[in-house]
Here is the input.
Amino acid sequence: MGKIQVVDDDVGQVLEPLVRQLGRVFGREQVEGIACAAAALKLAERDTFDVVLTDLMMPGIDGYESCRLFRADPLNFISSF
Here is the structure.
C-alpha cells in the first residue's frame, strides 16, 4: 500500500482515530492526517498520495470542491466513478 491522505475537520472524533487505526495497519509513516482541505491540496502539490479519504462537509473548501481541484491538477490521476 502507498501513502494515504485523510482530510477531515473533526480532528478529535474522526481524523485522529482514523489516522491512528490506518497507521497501525499500513504504518504510521504512510498516513498523513490533515484538518482542512486547503492544507491538503497544498500538501498534494509537493507530495504524492495513492489514496485520499476526505470528508464531504467541511467549512471553506468542502470535499466536493477539493476533489474537483485535485482532479484539475494533471499530475493527479483519479478515476471518475
